[in-house]
Amino acid sequence: MAKKSAAKKKPATKSSGGGGVAAAVKKAADLIQVAYDTGTPVPPIRTLLPEGDIDAAYAVQETNTRLRIKRGARLTGRKIGLTSKTIQKQLGVDRPDFGVLFDTMAIPDGEEVPFGMVLQPRVEGEIAFVMERDLKLERPSTTDVMRAIAYASPSIEICGSRIDKWQINIQDTIADNASAALYVLGNTKVKLEDFDGRLCGMVLESKGEPLSVGAGAACLGHPINAVRWLAEEMVRRGRPLLAGDVVMSGALGPMVAVTPGQVYEVRISGLGSARASFAAG
Amino acid sequence: MSDLDTLAKSVDDAARNAKAIAQLSMGITLSLEDAYTIQKKMIGLRIARGERRVGMKMGFTSRAKMIQMGVSDMIWGRLTDKMLVEDGGRISLAKYVHPRVEPEIAYLLKAPLAGPVTPIQALAAVEAIAPAIEIIDSRFDNFKFSLEDVVADNASSTGFVVGPWSKPDIDCSNLGMLLEIDGRAAQIGSSAAILGNPARSLAAASRMVAEHGERLEAGWIVMAGGATEAVALTAGMSVRNTVEKLGSVSFTVGA
């Protein structure tokens, strides 16, 4: 499907870097895959890539995306990262990034996540959107995006890093699938007109204590802005958003490090709730 | 004049002259009880000048706030009519030492409240709720203080702005709150940051005033506490707090 067009586009990116970059991309992708396969984080991979080369980092991500699909995983959507101004400042970037979601990463609401399934897990509360139709326009407007969305659900993204101690820069995280790991959607479907995407409150709690709070505006001013950015980026990179895709639109509050054995619950005003439950160590 | 009277006067003078003083706790050892006594005496001086009690404020009700200030207890302070800034009004920076703002939620009481109550009992005494902004200011150098200092200094209470009142049948446990400076988001949070639910703050207010032999009166306003970190004010700023379902409240800052 979309894989073919991605394959066609890639050489244009790589030719500017030459064979040296291609080899470096392969090496970085292999290293990250080793972290997945062995369950042991690896040092930052940015040192392998041309400094600041974002496309090379996405090429690393794409290499492992293809490997996963080859191994039988089904692509189910995308996650958007770096959607808060604070995080962008921390990483010295001025735009978000994205990673790919697979069926193997979807966890049903409240189902226990085995200890060790995710390397260095952290959780964040966000809004998930499910696409009603394909979005293949080169420059989709906010209107186009809103018309293409079927509904929103409350969600928890369980992030992870294959890079040792989360010592990531922008290239490391992009190459590492935007630090994606698992995602949990609450079992509620809400139409866009039935909640306030900008002002909806978000609280992520564990044992009754609010660990992270925020609101819709924390995600690029409005989560739809993030989806619009993604839709355009995905067309440009040859894997447009398709009907049925899940879009994890970006954190509404600070990320929280996971303690084994704890249950994390997100509540988003107007959307409902979702739970990520972690097995004890 | 007792020591505590002298200290109350020094804090009151600092507030009136908008001139910071050294922390009280640097000179002598104060108990928390002493600190609340100083606060009461200091408000007494304001009442003697013709000010009127109109409510109370809760402080350190959010994790973000406790971390920012390095304390672990909730505190409370007394509000007078002179502290009220009109919604859409303008303040003069010269009247403050180093003011900051926090987005809040305000409760208007229709019945007195005192002693231990559940959040549900507390809400039964509520006439209306509103988006609010608290202007806090510390009378101490560099906004640095011990728990006893800040309590003596009326919990840094200085001014409050209250927006449109809504009926209290709105669930306030998780309302998005957006503090904008000049139209740009400065702090983004949720009312859940206020003790998990601002109604708990109101219940705590009822308990805490009773511990000091007072009660919350009908007609009073209770400021439930900041939902995010505070933002420092500078001249020329336009400040607005927008709360999901409740609307917005704003003011501007003059020199």
Q: Would you write up a description of this structure?
A:
The complex is a heterodimer of chains A (281) and B (255). Chain A is of the alpha+beta class. Helices cover 30% and strands 28% of the residues of chain A. Chain A has helices at 2-15, 19-38, 54-70, 85-91, 142-148, 170-175, 223-236; strands at 75-81, 97-102, 106-107, 112-113, 122-131, 149-159, 180-185, 201-206, 209-215, 246-251, 256-257, 263-268, 272-278. In chain A, a hairpin with a 3-residue loop joins strand 12 and strand 13. In chain A, helix 1 (2-15) packs antiparallel against helix 3. Chain B has one domain (3-254): Fumarylacetoacetase-like, C-terminal domain (Fumarylacetoacetate hydrolase, domain 2, Alpha-Beta Complex), CATH 3.90.850.10. In chain B, the strands form 2 sheets. In chain B, strands 1, 2, 3, 5, 6, 7, 10 and 11 form an 8-stranded mixed β-sheet that branches. Chain B has a 5-stranded mixed β-sheet with strand order 4-13-12-8-9, with no helix packed on it. The termini of chain B are far apart. Classes of the chains: A alpha+beta (281), B alpha+beta (255). Chains A and B meet through strand 8 and strand 9 of A and strand 8 and strand 9 of B.
In short:
The complex is a heterodimer of chains A (281) and B (255). Chain A is α+β, with helices and mostly antiparallel strands and 281 residues long. Chain A has helices at residues 2-15, 19-38, 54-70, 85-91, 142-148, 170-175, 223-236; strands at 75-81, 97-102, 106-107, 112-113, 122-131, 149-159, 180-185, 201-206, 209-215, 246-251, 256-257, 263-268, 272-278.
Keywords for this entry:
heterodimer, A: 281 residues, alpha+beta, Fumarylacetoacetate hydrolase, domain 2, 7 helices, globular, B: 255 residues, eight-stranded mixed β-sheet, five-stranded mixed β-sheet, 30% strand
